[in-house]
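User: Please predict the structure of the protein below. I'd like the answer in structure-token form so I can feed it into my own downstream comparison script.

Assistant: Understood. Taking the following sequence of 345 residues as input:
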Amino acid sequence: MTRSQYRFARNLLFRLDAETAHHVSLDALRKLESLRVLRLISGSPPVAESVECMGLTFPNKIGLAAGLDKEGNCIDALGRLGFGHVEIGTITPRPQPGNPQPRLFRIIDKEAIINRMGFNNPGVETGARNVAKSSTFRKNGGVVGFNIGKNKVTPNESATDDYLTCLRGAWDVADYITVNLSSPNTPGLRDLQAADETARLLEALKSEQEKLTSKSGKRVPITLKVAPDLEPQHIEDLSKVFLDGGLDGLIATNTTISRTEVEGCDFATQAGGLSGAPVTTKSTDVIAAFHSHLGSKIPIIGVGGIMTAEDAQAKLKAGATLIQLYTGFIYHGPPLIREILKSVR
């Protein structure tokens, strides 16, 4: 698929409201993959060098960020497009519908999206079953991440229980597990990014990780996903927590609550997390700041506003070992994956 072909398809999809277009796209991908047609359309991705990270072998540096395949039922199809890893979720212990619609908005002239989905997902049991059904992607060396969060009704003082429930539920099917502390769409969730709160949660997660590793004979790395709206001192404090707590990997960053880059645009005043081109620089700066403290001790997966191959290069130069796409994939499609793969191999 060329950029012009994808633009044509995107223009048709953008006539639909954003959430409807999302479901139509994933349904189409699943259908094409089940009919074994997607491989004919997508072709073979460019040859890329594998990457060793967190004790795992990633077939290339590009992954899909959490938030697109929320239920984990499109892994094989998305992997077919060239992603080396696919992160599903966010998944919570119990199913939840998320926030009322409309809750997903495009700011097209800024290549941005605002979402306040609210962790709509089928719950960890169904999510794990969906991941277990994927086969082709892993047979081809793909890596599956499982992004977990707390239910909206769970108070912060009980959040650790929710994360531990999801950790146990995802353990057998996940290659790595991401703890989402940074969505702005679950009330109070970002409070868990306070250094002392994060330290307590990480201690509990690492303890459970040791138990599950001993019991299963399989070790699953744990990553944390942080917001781009962190001050330098907060980044320094969290870095110390991550180093002391033995975090396996860091995902930087989630969406921003800032609207500086989209002031005056349609939908700019909508509540939720802003992603896409407006967060590019902010995310890269946060990656660089964390890398200055973490060095090579904790790998960083860079995500946030990767709209071009040059954006991907900047994330890697800032200290990321791997990168993830989300909004850039919505606006530029599979051709962006190929362009990045050619530029970073």
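That's the full token string. The mean pLDDT is 97.
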